[in-house]
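Hi support team,

I submitted a single chain yesterday and got back a structure, but I'm not sure I'm reading the token output correctly. Could someone confirm the output below corresponds to the sequence I sent? I've pasted both exactly as they appear in my results page.

Thanks,
R.
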Amino acid sequence: MKDMTAGIGSIGTAAGAGDQDDSIDIGRLLVQLWAGKFLIILCAVLGISAGVLIFTNTPKTFQADALLQLESKGGQIGLPTELLGLTGDTPESTTEIEIVRSRLVLGQAVATLNLDWRAAPVLLPLIGVAVQRYDLPLPDLEMLRPYARRLETIELNLLQVEPGWVGKPIMLTVTGEGAYEVTLPNGAVLPGRVGETLQNPEKTFGLRLEVLTGAMGRQFVIQQRGELGTIAGLRNNLTVAEKGKGSGILLLSYRAANKRDAQRVLNAIAEAYLQQNISRGTADADSGLQFLDSQLPIAEKAFRDAEEALTAYRRQAQVVDLTFESQAMLTQAERINTELQELQRQEDEIKQRYTPNHPVYQQLLNNRARLEAQLADLTTESDSLPEIQRNIVNMTRDMELAQQNLIQLQSRAQEVEVMRASKIGSVRIIDRAQAADLPIAPRASLILALGMLLGGMVGVALVFVRAWLRRGVQSAGQLEQLGLPVFATVNYVASSDMKRSRRSDSWPLVAITDPGNIAVEAFRSLRTSLHFGMLDAPTNALVIISPAPGAGKSFTAANLAVVMAQGGQRVCLIDADLRRGQLRKFFGKPKNTPGLAEYLGEEKTLDEVLLDGPVAGLSFISSGRYPPNPTDLLLRSRMHELLALLAPRFDMVILDAPPVLAVTDPVVLGRIAGAILLVARFDSTQIAEIEATRRTLETAGLKITGAVLNGYDPRKAGTSRYGYSYRYDYKQRAD
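Hi R., thanks for writing in. Yes, this is the structure output for that exact sequence:
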């Protein structure tokens, strides 16, 4: 029977065959997102709200910028070309950037502006920044009095604490106009006034306020922070970068809570860096001058020795003047040596900007090679002169070279002396610190956009998690894997005639209002499956059950009864849910309509509770008034008598039972019925619920005859086999 009924009831089963595929279905994900759109929107709104809260409670941040220019130190000191390498004249931007960020420079800025002093008002938790920024009104309560309002400030003129109090807060409370008291870390309380120096008896603490604005009872926190921690905080807010590689221009940026502090701190850092550079330049000048002073006596002695050697040789050789040829050769050699020295100076400048492969650098190397070749030719030519002339030429050249070197050293020494006296460094401040009027943070648009994005992402995640947690049966194949033959798969119904809410007192029957709907065809298939499936049943009573409410068993029972009646069968539909029966709404019956409860209670006869249905051959018995003891009524013999009376009058008796996992009534009804039909709702009924339902019935000695997969939506299932149009105006989830 399983093979036969599965084949007959497979009208919608094939549509779910693709459910076994483990690949990601984008269409199905989109459907899940659309179904959870309100949750996503709610999370996005909450994200925006959180963004507003963060924005209003984040202090403003201003940024100041300054420009510095690095200059060649070698040009400042003015050493000879041969000595430049000893002083390292190439300005390295990376080195200078690290110097700007060093403790030497930042520590000087901290000392100049007393940045290790902290004095701030006490803010209300969570919304203190918003209260101070927007002047939000606060109740004048004693517990709220210490917290700052708008335009309440404090400025220190002096702060001195003992070493053990560094980093510890000192609480200041306003006690009157210009009066205050401080609570020291040791618990001592000292009164003071603005503009006057306050000291403790031990003289280890000193405080003088320049400005104090606040109502009586306001509290402020004063703290002497450690130097290393202050420098680290300063370094975190400082950014130093070179504008263009090799440009020698440094861009300094500093962030602070207000425009004035940003400019003041950055100017202090720039001045500290400039002063240390001047000090370093003066030290370099002293070092260079010391080197020159040590070289001048050597150069003077070399010149005198060369001059005396030439004079002595002339006297010995009795030669006073050089010949014209020798003099011309010597002059040409001096010119070449001068040009070579100039090329060496140019090379020292060019190699700072170009690599040896650059055309400018290559041209200089070619010129030097040409001059060196000419000098080598002159040297070879001088070898052909007579020995006396050749010696005089060489000695004269040595004397003139020594004289030129001495003159250069004397000139450079004078330049270094002038530079040391002028105190000019190799750094120049091009633009002093300047901050924009608008803060750089917090940025409302960015925070709100991120809040909405993150909120939406959380909403999407919740939708997917909820879908994963609530993921119910997805196909008829899953039911068959549990050993339940599937008699039919009923597609989700959203007919244009079904626009009434579940809360209304009248529910439409799709088998009557929309007979061409694909779901009605599934009920016809179910009718055929039941015809063959109940051939050997002891009675013609069919109990329709579900694991939990919302599966659509009442919808299935009502429409199945209509379809059977339309097929020429005599059908009696009984609402056997004596606790929450709602089947009467499909037939437009009022709530106080007598029904099964009155019959079992022997208050009414069968003919009094048996009502005519909307189609010929269909009769209906409502649940009646909800009794206090429904299970006891169903256990009475009168229930057996009812089915015995109905059996000869009807071809099929359908009982709409309560959920199995909620009450034991379905077990009682299953014992007197000929077949049990389980209704599972697509994507809602859990596999575990179906297994629990089967175990419950098997414990009572009952077996499920077949199953119906109700509310199947091909779009959610990831299949488009059916090209029908669906609308979500009505949900067939009546029980």
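A quick pointer for reading it: Residues 1-23, 74-91, 495-501, 719-734 have pLDDT under 50 and may be disordered. Let us know if anything else looks off.

Best,
Support desk
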